[in-house]
Amino acid sequence: MTLSTVPPDDSRLIFRERVKDYHCHILPGIDDGAETLESALSMARLFHEAGYREIYCTSHHIRGKYEASSTDVFDARCKLQAELDRENIAIKLLVGREHYLDEFLLDHLKQPLLLEGTNLFLVEIPAFIAIELVKEILFQVACRGYVPLIAHPERCNLLELADQGGKKSKFWDSWITRNAPVDNEVNLLRYFQDIGCQFQANLGSFHGLYGRYVQKKAEAFEKAGLYTHLGTDAHNPEHLKTILKIGKRL
Ligand SMILES: [Fe+2]
Residues whose CB is under 5 A from ligand 1 (ion)? Predict the structure, then answer.
Protein backbone atom coordinates (compact mmCIF):
# COMPACT_ATOMS: atom_id res chain seq x y z
CA MET A 1 0.00 0.00 0.00
CA THR A 2 1.39 3.37 -0.98
CA LEU A 3 0.44 6.28 1.22
CA SER A 4 1.65 9.81 1.55
CA THR A 5 3.99 10.00 4.55
CA VAL A 6 4.78 12.61 7.20
CA PRO A 7 7.81 12.88 9.51
CA PRO A 8 7.74 10.25 12.31
CA ASP A 9 7.49 12.83 15.10
CA ASP A 10 4.37 14.36 13.59
CA SER A 11 2.79 10.97 13.11
CA ARG A 12 3.30 10.24 16.82
CA LEU A 13 1.97 13.58 18.01
CA ILE A 14 -1.57 12.27 18.43
CA PHE A 15 -0.23 9.69 20.86
CA ARG A 16 1.91 12.07 22.90
CA GLU A 17 -0.76 14.72 23.44
CA ARG A 18 -3.44 12.49 24.84
CA VAL A 19 -5.62 15.04 26.63
CA LYS A 20 -8.54 15.02 24.23
CA ASP A 21 -10.69 12.09 23.16
CA TYR A 22 -12.15 12.55 19.69
CA HIS A 23 -14.51 9.59 19.79
CA CYS A 24 -16.49 8.49 22.84
CA HIS A 25 -19.95 7.23 23.76
CA ILE A 26 -20.16 8.79 27.22
CA LEU A 27 -23.59 10.45 27.00
CA PRO A 28 -26.12 8.33 28.90
CA GLY A 29 -29.30 7.16 27.21
CA ILE A 30 -28.50 8.28 23.66
CA ASP A 31 -27.07 5.13 22.08
CA ASP A 32 -25.38 1.88 23.15
CA GLY A 33 -22.84 3.81 25.22
CA ALA A 34 -23.13 4.68 28.92
CA GLU A 35 -26.44 3.31 30.18
CA THR A 36 -26.79 5.47 33.26
CA LEU A 37 -25.57 8.75 34.69
CA GLU A 38 -23.43 6.83 37.19
CA SER A 39 -21.71 4.93 34.36
CA ALA A 40 -21.01 8.19 32.55
CA LEU A 41 -19.55 9.70 35.73
CA SER A 42 -17.35 6.63 36.23
CA MET A 43 -16.05 7.03 32.69
CA ALA A 44 -15.34 10.71 33.29
CA ARG A 45 -13.36 9.89 36.46
CA LEU A 46 -11.30 7.31 34.56
CA PHE A 47 -10.60 9.80 31.79
CA HIS A 48 -9.51 12.43 34.28
CA GLU A 49 -7.18 10.03 36.11
CA ALA A 50 -5.60 9.15 32.75
CA GLY A 51 -4.93 12.82 32.00
CA TYR A 52 -7.76 13.60 29.61
CA ARG A 53 -9.35 17.04 29.88
CA GLU A 54 -11.70 17.26 26.87
CA ILE A 55 -14.05 14.59 25.57
CA TYR A 56 -16.05 14.67 22.37
CA CYS A 57 -19.45 13.06 22.97
CA THR A 58 -19.89 11.25 19.66
CA SER A 59 -23.05 9.18 20.05
CA HIS A 60 -24.11 6.99 17.14
CA HIS A 61 -26.52 8.42 14.60
CA ILE A 62 -28.06 5.52 12.66
CA ARG A 63 -31.43 5.66 10.91
CA GLY A 64 -33.89 3.25 12.53
CA LYS A 65 -31.59 2.48 15.47
CA TYR A 66 -30.16 5.54 17.21
CA GLU A 67 -32.12 8.58 16.14
CA ALA A 68 -31.70 11.13 18.95
CA SER A 69 -31.86 14.65 17.58
CA SER A 70 -29.06 17.20 17.79
CA THR A 71 -31.12 18.98 20.46
CA ASP A 72 -31.21 15.74 22.49
CA VAL A 73 -27.41 15.51 22.22
CA PHE A 74 -26.91 19.13 23.33
CA ASP A 75 -29.32 18.63 26.25
CA ALA A 76 -27.60 15.39 27.34
CA ARG A 77 -24.20 17.10 27.15
CA CYS A 78 -25.40 20.03 29.28
CA LYS A 79 -26.91 17.73 31.91
CA LEU A 80 -23.80 15.55 32.12
CA GLN A 81 -21.49 18.57 32.19
CA ALA A 82 -23.49 19.98 35.13
CA GLU A 83 -23.02 16.67 36.99
CA LEU A 84 -19.27 16.65 36.24
CA ASP A 85 -18.99 20.20 37.54
CA ARG A 86 -20.94 19.26 40.67
CA GLU A 87 -18.58 16.30 41.26
CA ASN A 88 -15.50 18.47 40.59
CA ILE A 89 -14.38 16.32 37.68
CA ALA A 90 -12.36 18.71 35.52
CA ILE A 91 -13.43 17.41 32.12
CA LYS A 92 -14.94 19.58 29.40
CA LEU A 93 -17.56 17.83 27.28
CA LEU A 94 -17.84 18.77 23.62
CA VAL A 95 -20.65 17.74 21.31
CA GLY A 96 -20.24 15.68 18.20
CA ARG A 97 -21.79 12.71 16.46
CA GLU A 98 -20.64 9.45 14.92
CA HIS A 99 -22.58 9.49 11.66
CA TYR A 100 -23.31 6.20 9.94
CA LEU A 101 -22.53 6.24 6.25
CA ASP A 102 -25.64 5.06 4.43
CA GLU A 103 -28.08 6.41 1.86
CA PHE A 104 -29.70 8.62 4.53
CA LEU A 105 -26.52 10.45 5.49
CA LEU A 106 -27.03 13.33 3.08
CA ASP A 107 -30.20 14.28 5.03
CA HIS A 108 -27.98 15.13 8.01
CA LEU A 109 -25.86 17.53 5.99
CA LYS A 110 -28.55 20.20 6.10
CA GLN A 111 -27.77 20.86 9.77
CA PRO A 112 -24.81 18.63 10.58
CA LEU A 113 -23.55 18.07 14.10
CA LEU A 114 -19.83 18.64 13.56
CA LEU A 115 -17.21 18.07 16.22
CA GLU A 116 -17.66 21.22 18.31
CA GLY A 117 -15.30 24.03 17.37
CA THR A 118 -14.12 22.27 14.21
CA ASN A 119 -15.20 21.59 10.65
CA LEU A 120 -14.91 17.84 11.18
CA PHE A 121 -17.75 15.48 10.30
CA LEU A 122 -17.08 12.17 12.07
CA VAL A 123 -18.33 9.29 9.96
CA GLU A 124 -18.30 5.51 10.35
CA ILE A 125 -18.19 3.32 7.25
CA PRO A 126 -20.33 0.18 7.62
CA ALA A 127 -18.92 -3.30 7.10
CA PHE A 128 -20.87 -3.97 3.95
CA ILE A 129 -21.54 -1.10 1.59
CA ALA A 130 -20.79 -0.38 -2.07
CA ILE A 131 -17.50 1.44 -2.56
CA GLU A 132 -19.03 3.80 -5.12
CA LEU A 133 -21.70 4.87 -2.62
CA VAL A 134 -19.02 5.57 0.00
CA LYS A 135 -17.07 7.70 -2.46
CA GLU A 136 -20.11 9.64 -3.65
CA ILE A 137 -21.42 10.44 -0.15
CA LEU A 138 -18.05 11.51 1.24
CA PHE A 139 -17.54 13.65 -1.85
CA GLN A 140 -20.86 15.35 -1.09
CA VAL A 141 -19.75 15.94 2.52
CA ALA A 142 -16.52 17.53 1.30
CA CYS A 143 -18.35 19.61 -1.34
CA ARG A 144 -20.38 21.26 1.42
CA GLY A 145 -17.16 22.47 3.03
CA TYR A 146 -16.94 19.88 5.82
CA VAL A 147 -13.95 17.65 6.47
CA PRO A 148 -14.90 13.96 6.67
CA LEU A 149 -13.15 12.41 9.67
CA ILE A 150 -13.14 8.66 9.04
CA ALA A 151 -13.76 6.80 12.31
CA HIS A 152 -11.36 3.90 12.96
CA PRO A 153 -10.39 3.15 9.31
CA GLU A 154 -8.40 0.18 10.62
CA ARG A 155 -11.75 -1.49 11.38
CA CYS A 156 -13.17 -0.76 7.92
CA ASN A 157 -13.62 -3.89 5.81
CA LEU A 158 -13.28 -1.87 2.61
CA LEU A 159 -9.71 -0.90 3.53
CA GLU A 160 -7.39 -3.88 3.58
CA LEU A 161 -3.64 -4.28 3.49
CA ALA A 162 -2.24 -4.92 0.04
CA ASP A 163 0.75 -6.76 1.54
CA GLN A 164 0.10 -9.40 4.17
CA GLY A 165 3.82 -10.06 4.71
CA GLY A 166 3.78 -13.53 3.20
CA LYS A 167 2.62 -15.14 6.45
CA LYS A 168 -1.11 -15.35 6.07
CA SER A 169 -2.95 -17.70 8.35
CA LYS A 170 -5.81 -19.74 6.96
CA PHE A 171 -8.14 -17.47 8.87
CA TRP A 172 -6.71 -14.36 7.23
CA ASP A 173 -6.81 -15.96 3.78
CA SER A 174 -10.50 -16.68 4.05
CA TRP A 175 -11.24 -13.37 5.73
CA ILE A 176 -9.57 -11.39 2.98
CA THR A 177 -11.18 -13.46 0.22
CA ARG A 178 -14.59 -12.56 1.58
CA ASN A 179 -13.88 -8.86 1.35
CA ALA A 180 -13.26 -6.24 -1.32
CA PRO A 181 -10.46 -6.63 -3.90
CA VAL A 182 -7.13 -5.10 -2.98
CA ASP A 183 -7.03 -2.77 -5.98
CA ASN A 184 -10.25 -1.13 -4.92
CA GLU A 185 -9.05 -0.84 -1.35
CA VAL A 186 -5.89 1.06 -2.20
CA ASN A 187 -7.76 3.28 -4.61
CA LEU A 188 -10.38 4.01 -1.98
CA LEU A 189 -7.82 5.18 0.57
CA ARG A 190 -6.18 7.39 -2.03
CA TYR A 191 -9.58 8.79 -2.91
CA PHE A 192 -10.23 9.62 0.76
CA GLN A 193 -6.93 11.47 0.91
CA ASP A 194 -7.59 13.27 -2.38
CA ILE A 195 -10.88 14.78 -1.16
CA GLY A 196 -9.27 15.88 2.12
CA CYS A 197 -10.50 13.26 4.60
CA GLN A 198 -8.83 12.93 7.98
CA PHE A 199 -8.51 9.71 9.94
CA GLN A 200 -9.24 8.83 13.58
CA ALA A 201 -7.54 5.79 15.11
CA ASN A 202 -9.01 3.80 17.98
CA LEU A 203 -6.52 3.54 20.82
CA GLY A 204 -7.45 -0.09 21.48
CA SER A 205 -6.74 -1.12 17.90
CA PHE A 206 -2.98 -0.90 18.47
CA HIS A 207 -3.09 -3.61 21.12
CA GLY A 208 -5.39 -6.18 19.64
CA LEU A 209 -8.67 -5.12 21.21
CA TYR A 210 -10.36 -5.90 17.89
CA GLY A 211 -8.08 -8.78 16.88
CA ARG A 212 -4.68 -9.26 15.27
CA TYR A 213 -5.67 -8.21 11.79
CA VAL A 214 -7.06 -4.83 12.87
CA GLN A 215 -3.91 -4.32 14.95
CA LYS A 216 -1.77 -5.00 11.90
CA LYS A 217 -3.73 -2.52 9.84
CA ALA A 218 -3.55 0.14 12.58
CA GLU A 219 0.21 -0.26 12.79
CA ALA A 220 0.58 0.03 9.01
CA PHE A 221 -1.63 3.11 8.83
CA GLU A 222 0.17 4.75 11.75
CA LYS A 223 3.57 3.99 10.25
CA ALA A 224 2.45 5.68 7.02
CA GLY A 225 1.37 8.78 8.97
CA LEU A 226 -2.28 8.37 8.02
CA TYR A 227 -3.84 9.17 11.38
CA THR A 228 -4.73 12.71 12.37
CA HIS A 229 -6.83 12.05 15.49
CA LEU A 230 -7.05 9.52 18.29
CA GLY A 231 -10.12 8.28 20.14
CA THR A 232 -11.07 5.63 22.66
CA ASP A 233 -14.50 4.79 21.17
CA ALA A 234 -15.31 3.78 24.76
CA HIS A 235 -18.88 2.66 25.49
CA ASN A 236 -18.85 1.96 29.25
CA PRO A 237 -16.48 2.09 32.26
CA GLU A 238 -15.19 -1.48 31.88
CA HIS A 239 -14.56 -0.98 28.18
CA LEU A 240 -12.74 2.28 28.92
CA LYS A 241 -10.64 0.67 31.68
CA THR A 242 -9.43 -1.95 29.22
CA ILE A 243 -8.64 0.63 26.55
CA LEU A 244 -6.72 2.92 28.90
CA LYS A 245 -4.82 0.03 30.45
CA ILE A 246 -3.54 -1.30 27.15
CA GLY A 247 -3.07 2.21 25.77
CA LYS A 248 -0.41 2.95 28.39
CA ARG A 249 1.98 0.70 26.51
CA LEU A 250 2.05 2.96 23.45
FE1 LIG B 1 -18.02 4.75 18.08
Answer: 98, 233
